[in-house]
Design goal:
The chain is mostly helical and 350 residues long. Helices cover 69% and strands 0% of the residues. The protein is built from 16 helices and no strands. The protein has helices at residues 2-15, 25-33, 38-53, 58-80, 89-105, 110-128, 137-157, 159-162, 193-214, 217-227, 229-234, 239-265, 275-288, 294-313, 318-332, 334-338. The relative contact order is 0.16.
Length: 350
C-alpha cells in the first residue's frame, strides 16, 4: 500500500503541465510598454479607410504617406538612438534612383524593384554607419550632410546613367502583382488610387516592423544609449553594433520611401538628394514629435496639408506662413499648442 501510495503523487505530478515561470519586473514592464493602445489600433484602421473615403485626394495622400515613411526612418535614428542627421536624403535618393534604374534597365516589377532599392539603401546605411560612430553631434551633422552631397554630385556627373540635371526620365512601371495570390494586373492610374494603396501597404508593414523593433529589448537599449552612451557602454551594451544596426535599418526604410516616390511618379531627379529633403523631414518631426514613431505620421499630415493649403492661398509667401507656424509651435510647445487654455500657465484657462 505504501508503495502504491508513493507512486500516485509521482504519476499525478508527471501528468500535470509545468507551471510557467513568473515574469520578472523588467519583463512585465517591457510587456506593458509594448502593449497596443487604442489610438494605435485606430490609426491602423484609419489607413485603409482613407483610401476608401477620400478617392479624390489619392495623389496628395500618397505624398503624405511617403513623407511619413521617410520621417519614421529618421525617427528611428534621431528619436531612439539620438543620432542627428542632416543628410538623411542620401538614403531616400539612393532608393529612388535604384528603383528607377532597376525598372528602366532590368525589370519593371514594382515589388521586386522595391526590395532591390531597400537592400541597396540598407547596404549604403551599413557602409556609411562607420562614419557616425565617432565624434560629437556637430561632427555627425557634417558627415551625414557630406554623404548626401557626394551622392548628389555623383548623380549630377554620371548623366549617362542618371540623366544628370534632367533627371531619370522614361521610367515605366509594370502592373502591380501581389505575391502568393491570384490578384494581378493593378496598373498605376493617373488618379493615384493604385499608387496610394501600394504606398499604404508598405507604410503599414514598415510601421509594424519598426514598432516591434523599438518595443523590443533592442529598442529599449537604443533609448538607453541615446540618454547616456557612457553609462550604456559601462553596463555591457555594445554601442557601436547597435548604432550600426539601427542606422542600417533606418537607411532601408528611407530607401523604401524614395523607391515609392520614383515608382509612383515615374521620375527620379537630383531633387531627391537635395538638402531641403533632409530639412523638411526634420521639420516634420519637429511638428509631430520624436521618440514614438507616430510623430512622423502626424507631422507629415500637418506639414503636407499646411504646404498644400498655404501655397494655394499665397504661392509667393507660403514659406513665411509655414515658418511662422513653426516658430509659434516651438515657442509655445506642442502640448500647449493643441491645448490653448494652457498657454498662460500649466493647467490655467484664460
Amino acid at each position: 500500500m505504501s508503495d502504491a501510495a508513493d507512486s500516485m503523487p509521482r504519476d499525478a505530478s508527471s501528468l500535470a503541465a509545468p507551471l510557467p515561470a513568473a515574469l520578472s519586473p523588467a519583463a512585465r514592464s517591457l510587456r506593458g510598454y509594448a502593449r497596443w493602445r487604442w489610438w494605435e489600433i485606430a490609426l491602423f484602421v484609419a489607413l485603409p479607410l482613407s483610401w476608401l473615403l477620400l478617392p479624390a485626394q489619392a495623389l496628395l495622400l500618397n505624398e503624405i504617406a511617403i513623407v511619413a515613411l521617410f520621417a519614421i526612418s529618421l525617427d528611428l535614428i534621431l528619436g531612439y538612438a539620438g543620432v542627428v542627421s542632416l543628410g538623411h536624403a542620401a538614403f531616400f535618393g539612393f532608393g529612388a534612383y535604384t528603383a528607377a534604374l532597376f525598372a528602366k534597365s532590368v525589370l519593371p516589377d514594382p515589388i521586386v524593384g522595391l526590395v532591390v532599392a531597400v537592400a541597396a539603401s540598407a547596404a549604403l546605411g551599413l557602409v556609411s554607419s562607420v562614419l557616425i560612430l565617432r565624434g560629437s553631434d556637430l561632427t555627425r551633422l557634417m558627415v551625414t550632410l557630406g554623404v548626401a552631397s557626394i551622392l548628389y554630385e555623383l548623380a549630377n556627373k554620371l548623366d549617362w546613367l542618371t540623366g544628370g540635371a534632367d533627371g531619370l526620365q522614361g521610367v515605366v512601371m509594370g502592373p502591380l502583382t501581389i505575391p502568393f495570390t491570384s490578384l494581378k494586373g493593378f496598373d498605376f492610374d493617373l488618379a493615384g488610387r493604385t499608387a496610394y494603396a501600394y504606398t499604404l501597404v508598405v507604410l503599414a508593414v514598415a510601421l509594424f516592423v519598426s514598432r516591434r523593433l523599438v518595443h523590443s529589448p533592442f529598442g529599449v537599449s537604443l533609448q538607453a544609449l541615446r540618454d547616456n552612451r557612457l553609462r550604456a557602454s559601462s553596463i555591457g551594451l555594445s554601442v557601436p553594433l547597435r548604432l550600426v544596426a539601427v542606422y542600417t535599418f533606418a537607411g532601408g526604410v528611407a530607401g523604401a520611401a524614395g523607391a515609392l516616390l520614383a515608382q509612383t511618379t515615374g521620375f527620379a531627379s537630383l531633387d531627391v538628394f537635395d538638402f531641403h529633403r533632409s530639412a523638411e523631414v526634420l521639420l516634420v518631426l519637429v511638428i509631430g514629435g520624436t521618440g514614438y514613431l507616430y510623430g512622423g505620421i502626424f507631422g507629415a499630415i500637418v506639414f503636407k496639408l499646411l504646404h498644400d493649403l498655404i501655397s494655394a492661398w499665397t504661392p509667393q509667401y507660403w514659406n513665411f506662413w509655414l515658418g511662422l507656424f513653426l516658430v509659434v509651435l516651438v515657442l509655445v510647445g506642442r502640448e500647449r499648442f493643441v491645448r490653448p487654455w494652457t498657454w498662460f500657465g500649466p493647467g490655467r484657462k484664460s
